[in-house]
Write a structure and sequence with these properties.
- The protein is built from 16 helices and 17 strands.
- It has helices spanning 58-69, 113-117, 122-125, 130-144, 151-154, 169-172, 179-203, 216-229, 296-302, 328-337, 358-366, 383-386, 393-411, 418-427, 432-460, 468-475; strands at residues 6-7, 16-18, 23-26, 35-36, 43-44, 79-84, 87-92, 101-106, 111-112, 237-238, 246-247, 257-261, 270-275, 287-288, 306-307, 314-320, 343-349.
- Strand 6 (79-84) and strand 7 (87-92) form a beta hairpin.
- Helix 7 (179-203) packs across helix 8.
Length: 491
């Protein structure tokens, strides 16, 4: 039997940058090796939210007046900013029908790569990743103060959110042992390194272009704001006014915003228009969906809140073929022939079945001993189909035990139990960040326990499973329905 030992990695060392609806760019780099397990500020409760009696802050009022002056909003606009439980949101000024257009923002008011290119720092940002150039632009415009065209908008942006990127060391201790902690620290380190690079390559050689010295704190602020407020389609962009829309788990579609051509037969302008995914009564808040496939860890990192529904609890299981495996080349060829590779990451969500191909890949990784004949070239076109079902009792037993041991090891690294976390959540009286921390670690542990239970139950059923050799003999007519071997006598 081929041996493969699990090790636990809390995250990938290089972050995936994601925005409201999906990832905006992947930062290339190596992932950890071997067989591994690897915004706003609220815990969402309901899709119905109304404005409070509080007046909107003066900065928001000035921003709204700026939108009016620029013709972005008018008396016909069916939404307006309001103070809501999440902070700020958009409130319906009248009843709104499902799929009704609620806002339209002309392209000249978007902040994207084109905006940067047209600015005084466009030349020196050429060739940079979009998120880097936009972050530099935001930081620079913010330092201009009232002289910036964007000052009314920038003044409304928060200094920090409840994203784990902004947590103190003491607060981060509350997510000790979680994959989210590793991801958070990895992103902070990556952004620091990226700032040091652009500071040397771009900022210092062009100091005359910047009104004030640019600092890492300013760059990190811009990065965090961009991450929490950007729209990914059709290209990475911040869209003032539209980014006041909050998230609701009750919205089950991401198809709310589109780039459309402005009215007029010869118009070359474009608008970003948003349709309400739900019917909304006057005085209630209008919501959108930030990402159906985002986990609670993604939500906490990007926006600073988690969803109270358990189907966002997730854990990433990373499997890797070992180069020391004497069948490494054959296994890698089989994996690549089926759209996988040396390393595969499986996102497992609470209450949902294992991801497709996970058991196949596990069986491939563990394949060896008397089962190794299946790696021969004669089976190359059919082995992936064979791996959909158990190969042999030793192979199946091995993966069951390895996964269970890995889950138990991961669970032991948390400083609280599931029961202790659930008690804290039930008692309430937690700060926003503490509630996020407890929800994240409980969620990861619930998924780990679920994985462990799946493979424990499977191990108990090993004697009841049908394996490759038995299936093969049946297909040749050499085994009866009761499992008896059929002997053919010559005549």
């Amino acid at each position: 039997m081929v041996m493969f030992m699990p090790s636990i990695h809390r995250s990938t060392p290089y972050p995936i940058l994601v925005s409201r609806a999906e990832g905006f760019s992947s930062i290339s780099g190596t992932r950890a090796a071997s067989f591994q397990l690897k915004k706003r500020s609220f815990v969402l409760k309901s899709s119905v939210s109304t404005a409070t009696n509080c007046d909107i802050p003066p900065k928001v009022e000035r921003f709204w007046e700026w939108l009016k002056d620029e013709g972005v909003v008018s008396a016909k606009t069916p939404v307006k900013p309001g103070v809501v439980p999440e902070g700020l949101g958009l409130i319906a000024t009248r009843d709104i029908s499902r799929n009704e257009v609620i806002l339209e923002v002309p392209k000249k008011f978007w902040i994207n790569s084109d905006t940067v290119a047209a600015s005084e720092i466009g030349r020196i940002c050429s060739g940079q990743k979009p998120w880097v150039s936009i972050s530099l632009f935001l930081m620079n415009e913010r330092l201009k103060g009232e002289e910036s065209k964007w000052s009314k908008y920038l003044d409304t942006l928060a200094e920090v959110t409840n994203s784990t990127m902004y947590w103190s060391e003491e607060e981060l201790l509350e997510i000790q042992g979680t994959q989210l902690l590793g991801t958070t620290l990895g992103i902070k380190a990556f952004v620091q390194n990226e700032f040091e690079r652009i500071n040397e390559e771009i900022i210092l050689p062009n100091k005359q272009l910047f009104p004030q010295p640019l600092t890492f704190d300013g760059f990190f602020w811009a990065f965090g704001i961009l991450r929490s407020r950007a729209f990914p389609r059709p290209s990475l962009a911040m869209i003032p006014f539209a980014d006041l829309l909050n998230h609701s788990a009750e919205v089950n579609t991401e198809d709310h915003g589109h780039e459309v051509r402005a009215p007029g037969l010869f118009s070359r302008d474009y608008l970003y228009h948003v349709r309400s995914p739900l019917a909304v009564r006057a005085g209630d808040q209008v919501f959108i969906q930030y990402g159906l496939n985002k986990s609670n860890a993604d939500m906490a990192l990007d926006y600073g809140f988690i969803d109270s529904r358990g189907d966002r609890d997730a854990f990433t299981l990373t499997l890797e073929l070992s180069e020391s495996d004497k069948f490494y080349d054959d296994k890698l060829d089989i994996a690549e022939s089926n759209g996988l590779g040396e390393t595969v990451h499986f996102d497992i969500k609470y209450g949902q079945p294992l991801p497709p191909a996970m058991l196949q890949y596990l069986r491939l990784v563990a394949l060896g001993g008397t089962d190794a004949f299946l790696l021969e070239s004669i089976f190359r076109n059919s082995i992936w189909g064979f791996l959909e079902l158990p190969i042999s009792r030793p192979n199946e037993e091995h993966i069951c035990r390895v996964i269970q041991n890995a889950c138990k090891s991961a669970l032991s690294s948390y400083h609280t139990s599931i029961e202790e976390d659930e008690k804290l959540l039930l008692e309430g009286n937690l700060s926003s960040r503490m509630e996020i921390a407890v929800g994240i670690r409980r969620g990861e542990k619930r998924v780990l326990q679920q994985i462990n239970d799946m493979f424990r139950e499977r191990e108990m059923e090993l004697d009841l499973l049908e394996y490759y050799q038995e299936r093969r003999l049946k297909s040749l007519g050499l085994v009866g329905e009761q499992g008896e071997i059929i002997f053919w006598e010559s005549k």
